[in-house]
Specification:
With about 950 residues, the chain is an alpha+beta fold. It is built from 30 helices and 25 strands. The protein folds into four domains: about 210 residues, 2-Layer Sandwich (Cytochrome Bc1 Complex, Chain A, domain 1), CATH 3.30.830.10; about 180 residues, Cytochrome Bc1 Complex, Chain A, domain 1 (2-Layer Sandwich), CATH 3.30.830; about 210 residues, Cytochrome Bc1 Complex, Chain A, domain 1; about 200 residues, 2-Layer Sandwich (Cytochrome Bc1 Complex, Chain A, domain 1), CATH 3.30.830.10.
């Protein structure tokens, strides 16, 4: 359970986003064909979106019940949606609805704190919640046998929530850390989390940040919390949504038993009545933030609400602007003129009139004025002329294909119903939305552009580094002392153990149906794996080759990563723009990236468009052009991305891990490259990597989803059967045997709002007999909300939004990481807590209950991965790459279950010794005080301006 407020979701076309898949080249320099017009693109097959079949009723107390039965899954999702969000925050208490969301996971009169995690994580499920402008939703996915318990638990926190001083203060501290992590420690956190809304609205409470402010959070009181619960958390303001494997009569009986007795207050529900006035005068504001490496600009307008007849056309307009690499803003600002390193847009359509905005993060050295001018030119194009038929079709196809993907999981289906209900007042809109999108015409798109994207109604928000401020910074605004609520209602406390209502019994277990993969090898050596896992018309494809970043030439860190970036940017017969336009017209996007030991191409496509999509995928894999201008464009975008990530403590600490623990080996560098290494990578380097590794006898093709083995094998032969394996041995990942001693490093990043703490070391290979003890031990330590690190750092002390541990196993030498982000002043304490828990895991046997619970987390997560086509493709691709029998899918649960406490302790003792670990801390050293010196007396302190990750000394 991570509980979070929801940023107003933007669609990004990020040039500096890090990938995890792909490649491409040919030895020559083939001349590329001219880009075709969109009208010449392959026509996509019609996409049918299966409707969500559901039933609904309203209880006498006003609670709405919606449910949809699915007997193909062993799980069920239970969700409760409350029509109260950030817009309902009390005066002077911005962020309050979000703070309250955190408190809902604590105690009730019959459930001690953290019981929700016992009922979900400990049985292999999960729980979470999010706060939006208009609603707060709580959701769980659990084995079907736990249905009754979850409905009872949801009724408990609706009817008898316990809030005491300790819980209140602890969760308020956690929310502050979330604010620091999401807003203050991110270079563009202030822009997206604060400034766009604050400067776009004048009157409506949508202008207030959902995350709030530390000052206003400090003013909140327990009476505020209790009054908020009594005001908004009531049956007639709630919708219970259940999707999954259940008996209908039994479900209704549970709902009547536990939700039916809850009383609805006689007082009316307060509703926001503020109306945002029309914007008739354009305005421009300049905003500032520390650690802003590249300036950004956003243009905003008032838009329609979710239920407005203009909503569908506005969504299509948004997709035309930034959905994929063939979108208008990406093509214009990122690809053609390269004035921006990324572009974004948003059709934020909440329950009341919302925002439309577009924007760009500039490329290095490009002025904001140039970005603004190009954004305005693209907006004028939308107003002045209809979009083409092909462009309209592509945007609608992408949106409708995404609707199919949303049907893949039970929690996403429940979300679709809930979102339609609370924002449009009608859950059926989750189904009718597809028809509405299909009906949008070019004239409709032009009409909404003319109606909303007006010159006089525009707000321009510029975002630049604080160092560029000409005038003195304004004084920090004093938060007005808004009065706290006075609460006189019932106050609940946790009943003594013997007086609590016992947990309802578990129902009958539903066994999962596991996919049965089939495999073959084509005559050219290509291994093909196919697994039918669903009747939903989606197919996931992953092509893996057995070399990645560890095969980078010496001194050229990032070569495999750059090759992966360029592989989708043109073939012998298709330009980069053709590849993007053709694949997106089919409702898919081909992605690429490299890991340490392999590289891959992947896509997810509606089945009816699979054959033409496979033809594009094979062309990208076999015939990349590696044109010089494409290499330079991607290199520049990657360098811009590094400028951004070097200002993010979490990202920068991640870059430092490999040079520290793998120093002196083929993995002793930054996989994605550095500002020093990337300029030296040549086209010849990329061609050599591709020629050596991208060959059929060094590759694995996986197809999953709605596809039979016979269909998959035939498609593989058609797309890749003519691929020839050259003479000689293929390029494969080298063995890695690190010998670097432990090392502690503090990177000083002045002005950042948080410190990232990592304890890292080398670890086991995937083939190790300790693999299963290793993943269980790591999960006990840091896998999930209830794992030890999160318990100690977040739950008990409120020092972080979340702490975790991970074990990355590889061919020869893997890596362990324990990490958290915290305020700079707490960095030393967090270092100590991570090390203490690593030591304790070896010294004290894990209890049977704790071990069973953490095993359930692993098993549940694994099972949910197999339910998604993409997840299954990744699992099978990894098993095949590491030469693990594909029957491991059926054996996973038994092998996890068999791990003993003694094996966990032994693994921790030999593999997780903090004395042999390195520590990385990235943050503002001036705020860490003397405590960090005491915690890490031998630590080297390196200024971010002196950092050079290509040198053994790091500077």
């Amino acid at each position: 359970m991570t509980n979070s407020f929801k940023f107003k979701p933007s669609r990004f076309s990020l040039a500096f986003a890090t990938g995890l898949l792909a490649l491409a080249p040919m030895a020559g320099s083939p001349v590329q064909a001219a880009a075709p017009t969109k009208s010449a693109l392959t026509k996509a097959a019609p996409i049918t979106v299966p409707p969500i079949v559901y039933k609904t009723r309203t209880l006498p107390n006003g609670m709405k019940l919606l449910y949809s039965r699915d007997t193909t899954t062993p799980n069920v999702t239970v969700q409760v949606w409350y029509s109260v969000g950030s817009k309902d925050d009390p005066n002077g208490r911005s962020g309050f609805a979000h703070l309250f969301e955190h408190l809902m996971f604590k105690a009730t009169q019959d459930m001690p704190s953290e019981t929700f995690d016992r009922l979900t994580e400990d049985v292999g499920g999960f729980n979470n919640a999010s706060t939006w402008d208009d609603f707060t939703n709580y959701y769980e996915v659990v084995p079907a046998a736990s249905l009754e318990r979850l409905i009872w638990a949801e009724s408990e926190r609706l009817g008898a929530l316990v809030v005491d001083e300790d819980i209140f203060k602890s969760e308020r501290d956690v929310v502050k850390e979330e604010l620091r992590q999401r807003i203050l420690a991110q270079p563009y956190g202030r822009l997206f989390g604060l400034y766009i809304a604050q400067n776009s609205y004048t009157t409506h409470p949508y202008k207030r940040p959902g995350i709030g402010s530390i000052e206003e959070l400090n003013l909140a009181t327990i009476d505020d919390v209790r009054a908020f619960h009594a005001t908004y958390y009531r049956p007639d303001n709630a919708a219970l949504i259940v999707v999954g494997n259940f008996d209908e009569a039994q479900l209704n009986a549970y709902v009547d038993k536990y939700m039916g007795p809850l009383k609805t207050p006689t007082s009316p529900l307060p509703r926001v009545t503020a109306v945002e006035p029309p914007h008739t005068v354009a305005k421009t504001v300049t905003t500032y933030g520390p650690n802003v490496p590249l300036p950004a600009v956003a243009l905003t307008w008032m838009g329609p609400k979710a239920s407005d007849s203009d909503a569908a056309a506005t969504k299509v307009l948004d997709a035309i602007l930034t959905s994929g690499k063939s979108s208008r803003l990406y093509n214009s600002l990122v690809y053609d003129t390269q004035v921006a390193t990324s572009v974004f847009s948003n059709a934020d359509l909440p329950a009341q009139p919302g925002l439309i905005y577009v924007g760009a993060i500039m490329a290095d050295g490009k002025p904001l004025a140039e970005g603004e001018a190009q954004l305005l030119a693209q907006i004028a194009r939308l107003r002045d002329a209809p979009v083409s038929a092909a462009e309209l079709s592509e945007a609608k196809t992408e949106l409708i294909a995404n609707a199919v993907r949303q049907r893949e999981t039970i929690d996403n289906r429940a979300f679709a119903l809930g979102y339609a209900l609370v924002t449009q007042g009608n859950a059926e809109k989750a189904n009718s939305e597809v028809a509405e999108l299909s009906a949008v015409t070019a004239a409709d798109v032009q009409a909404v552009a003319r109606k909303y994207l007006t010159t006089n109604g525009m707000t321009t928000i510029r975002y630049v580094a604080e160092s560029e401020r000409k005038d003195a910074a304004p004084a920090v605004a004093t938060v007005p002392p808004a009065a706290s609520a006075t609460f006189t209602g019932p106050i609940y406390t946790l009943r003594p153990e013997g007086e609590r209502t016992p947990l309802p019994p578990l129902g009958a277990a539903v066994n999962p149906t596991l996919p049965a993969p089939a495999e073959t090898t084509l005559p050219n050596g290509l291994k093909v794996v196919v697994a039918k896992s669903s009747d939903l018309p989606l197919v996931a494809v992953r092509l893996t080759v057995k070399a990645g970043a560890s095969s980078d030439p010496a001194g050229k860190a990032g070569a495999a990563s750059l090759m992966s970036d360029v592989i989708t940017e043109g073939t012998a017969t298709r330009t980069a723009q053709q590849i993007a336009a053709e694949s997106e017209a089919l409702g898919t996007e081909i992605s690429a990236g490299s890991d340490w030991e392999y590289s891959a191409l992947s896509m997810n496509v509606v089945k009816g468009n699979l054959s033409p999509a496979m033809a594009i995928l094979s062309d990208v894999a076999l015939h990349p052009a590696f044109k010089a201008d494409e290499i330079e464009r991607m290199r520049s975008q990657t360098l811009d991305g590094l400028k951004v990530n070097y200002q993010q403590p979490g990202a920068l600490s991640g870059y430092m891990t490999a040079p520290l623990i793998y120093g002196g080996t083929p993995m002793g560098h930054v996989a994605s490259g550095t500002p020093h290494s990337l300029p030296g990578i040549t086209r010849e380097d990329l061609v050599a990597l591709h020629t050596g590794a991208w060959r059929p006898d060094n590759a694995i093709l996986v197809l999953t989803g709605d596809i039979t083995p016979q269909e998959g094998f035939a498609l593989a032969q058609a797309a890749f059967g003519a691929w020839k394996a050259p003479a000689g041995k293929p390029l494969t990942a080298p063995a890695v045997t690190p010998a670097a001693p432990p090392r502690d490093v503090i990177v000083d990043l002045p002005g950042t709002g948080q410190a990232a703490v990592r304890v890292v070391k080398t670890a086991i290979a995937r083939s190790s007999p300790d693999y299963y003890p290793g993943i269980v031990a790591t999960t006990v330590l840091g896998g999930g909300y209830s794992a030890r690190l999160n318990q100690e750092i977040r739950i008990k002390r409120g020092l972080s939004y979340g702490a975790n541990a991970s074990l990355s196993t590889r061919l020869t030498t893997g890596a362990f990481t324990g990490q958290a982000q915290t305020k700079n002043e707490s960095a030393a304490q967090v270092v100590g807590l991570i090390k203490t828990e690593m030591t304790r895991l070896a010294a004290e046997p894990v209890s049977a209950d704790e071990l069973t619970a953490r095993k359930s987390v692993l098993i549940g997560n694994y099972g949910r991965n197999l339910e998604r086509a993409d997840g299954l493709a990744n699992v099978l691709g990894d098993l095949a790459f590491y030469r693990i029998d594909l029957k491991e899918i059926q054996q996973y649960t038994a092998k996890v279950t068999a791990v003993t406490p003694q094996q966990v302790s032994a693994f921790a003792g030999t593999q997780l010794d903090p004395a042999t670990s390195s520590v990385i801390v990235v943050g503002d050293r001036s705020q860490m005080g003397d405590a960090i010196t005491a915690a890490l007396p031998k630590a080297e302190v390196i200024s971010v301006t002196d950092l050079n990750l290509d040198k053994s000394g790091l500077k």
